[in-house]
Write a sequence for this structure.
């Protein structure tokens, strides 16, 4: 090693040797950083790789679902053969589809649902991917068949194996009303463009009537004598036995929607957006409409209504602001104030589109996150136990893209 004497007589290392020492120190510093980084990665994902995995998971959509729900795993370099999917330590029986960038798979049933780690494994190389968190929800074993619409009509049931199974039934365009009679296997639906169809059993849908002005809402009464329909400015009723018999009940309305009948008082109830009103009239149109709830009552942006006929309670899906929905409760026997029973933070979603009461204890709510963007995992159906205090809303099924109506 060469040395040189400084001006003060102190020996110093030559510049080239000094550079080597600095490079060695830098290398030690970098190795230390890499070592720390590797430890953090292992800690975060809670697994060890038996080698460098050539494929990785980037995203899981949705991040939570009940068994039987189809989810999509997105990533890079997925092998086309011999790839396994694990939810915790549960191996999925089969994949729905696979490509180099995505995997479609159904969530398996688990003895202990909850938070698990989602992971991939190659059978040929025994190499595991990184992991992502996933939440497996509880299966609602007492769930009845639930019909619901997007631009198509579906039916969701819980199979004997305890898995959610969803069947596509019909392409119905832009639905504005849905009536389901499961005992008679009968479905009646109306579209935004004004067509009203009836389907019984396995027969093809029968066109009942066309309203050229289009439709906002449809309601079939409990006795199935009349069908009530609203356009942008009118409310009418059509005889179920004679579709040529149509009576205009109310005119000059402002986008009436969510028609309901209070069976105890024989009143027709609906909401209007401009201005924000919930009104009542008579089923024959002879009584003048009266405002029973308005902004002073607590309305902000009503989207849908439902009635508990026995307890004479009204439930209102209400959008307070973007991303903030509420389910309001009011008393039909003494209208006045509406109370926020549930809010977005309680698990009902951000945009309530439809409410459906089963006549016993459950209120079903269709939520879509937003109407101007693609729906993500927040869109779906939840059910609320109205008379069990403190019980949180339960997820029935999700995601549902552009969900609109529910039929029980």
């Amino acid at each position: 090693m060469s040395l040189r004497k400084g001006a003060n007589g102190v020996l110093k290392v030559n510049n080239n040797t000094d550079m080597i020492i600095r490079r060695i120190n830098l290398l030690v510093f970098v190795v230390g950083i890499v070592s720390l980084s590797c430890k953090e990665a292992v800690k975060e994902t809670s697994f060890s790789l038996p080698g460098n995995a050539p494929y990785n998971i980037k995203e899981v959509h949705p991040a939570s679902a009940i068994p039987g729900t189809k989810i999509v795993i997105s990533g890079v370099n997925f092998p086309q053969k011999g790839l396994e999917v694990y939810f915790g330590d549960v191996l999925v029986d089969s994949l729905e589809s696979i490509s180099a960038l995505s995997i479609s798979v159904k969530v398996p049933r688990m003895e202990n649902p909850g938070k698990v780690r989602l992971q991939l494994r190659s059978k040929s190389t025994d190499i595991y991917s990184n992991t992502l968190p996933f939440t497996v929800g509880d299966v609602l074993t007492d769930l009845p068949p639930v019909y619901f619409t997007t631009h198509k009509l579906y039916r969701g049931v819980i199979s004997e194996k305890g898995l959610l199974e969803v069947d596509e039934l019909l392409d119905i365009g832009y639905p504005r009303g849905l009536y389901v009679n499961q005992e008679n296997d009968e479905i009646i639906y109306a579209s935004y463009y004004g067509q009203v169809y009836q389907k019984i059993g396995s027969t093809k849908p029968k066109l009942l009537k066309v309203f050229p002005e289009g439709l906002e809402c449809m309601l079939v009464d409990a006795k199935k004598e009349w069908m009530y329909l609203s356009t942008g400015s009118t409310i009418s009723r059509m005889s179920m036995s004679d579709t040529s018999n149509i009576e205009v009940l109310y005119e000059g309305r402002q986008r009436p929607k969510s028609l309901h009948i209070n069976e105890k008082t024989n009143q027709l109830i609906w909401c209007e957006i401009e201005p924000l009103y919930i009104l009542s009239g008579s089923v024959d149109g002879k009584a003048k409409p009266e405002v029973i709830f308005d902004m002073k009552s607590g309305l902000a942006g009503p989207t849908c209504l439902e009635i508990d006929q026995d307890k004479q309670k009204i439930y209102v899906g209400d959008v307070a602001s973007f991303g903030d929905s509420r389910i309001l409760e009011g008393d039909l026997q003494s209208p006045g104030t509406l109370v926020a029973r549930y809010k977005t933070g309680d698990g009902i979603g951000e945009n309530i589109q439809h409410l459906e009461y089963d006549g016993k204890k459950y209120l079903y709510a269709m939520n879509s996150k937003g109407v101007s963007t693609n729906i993500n995992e927040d869109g779906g159906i939840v059910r609320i136990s109205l008379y069990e205090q403190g019980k949180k809303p339960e997820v029935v099924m999700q995601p549902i893209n552009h969900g609109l109506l529910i039929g029980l």
Remarks:
- The first helix runs from residue 15 to 45.
- The chain has one helix and 35 strands.
- The radius of gyration is 30 Å.
